[in-house]
TrEMBL record:
Family the UniProt entry places it in: Belongs to the AHA1 family.
Protein name: ArsR family transcriptional regulator
Record-linked SUPFAM superfamilies: Bet v1-like, Winged helix' DNA-binding domain
SMART domains named among the record's database cross-references: HTH_ARSR
Domain HTH arsR-type: 1-88
One MF term in the entry's GO annotations: DNA-binding transcription factor activity
Amino acid sequence: MDKVFKALADDTRRRLLDRLHENNGQTLGELCERIVMTRQSVTQHLAVLEAANLISTVRRGREKLHYLNPVPLHEIQERWIEKFERPRLSALGALKRRAEEAMTDKPSFVYVTYIASTPEKVWEALTDADLTAAYWGHRNESDWRPGSRWAHVRTDGSGVEDVVGRVVESEPPARLVTTWAAPADEDREDRHSRVTFEIQPYEDIVRLTVVHEDLGDEEERAQVGAGWPAVLSNLKSLLETGRTLPQEPWLVPSR
């Protein structure tokens, strides 16, 4: 937590986080427009935030997009704030969050986790139908080539597809981009969301960044905000221990 507190101690870095909260997924140039500072200085501040895991970056073509990572802030809230004033602060926080999130017209969710594994094994866990069935409760079926269809299929033998989409980018074992939609909306591209998986190796671990963007509304964002941590925790357990979690994590009550 020392890196997090150090990063938050600087006013410029707090303003950069505010800018990303207002409009997540900005380039360096966009962030510099509202910060009276050289690009080099802004880059240095962003590096401190990224080292503290307060932001994550995703490349899209030649652009490098910056996203808030809420996990360290959530840990601060749980450890240093909620246990003292949980009921009152939870109510105030929910009110403030709804007011602030209402200001953005493109809800998105970013999650970063670190796994003791290799990029190849993480890629296999994301794309192998049998492995996804083991930790996700659905089989992700596709040939994973750009332009191909993919489907999130129930494992109860019914063949029911709960999510469908297209593979936008596929660069094994580093990057996978897919669209997501309800089967009834498969032909309605305006109702598709987009999920990007970035797999970055570092010595004996892998940093997995998941960006879910173009969500329909804040209710949908809340749903994916609860679902992704559960799924990715199960994936992490499977890769690191050979076993999924003893209970399905998405069934754990929120309170």
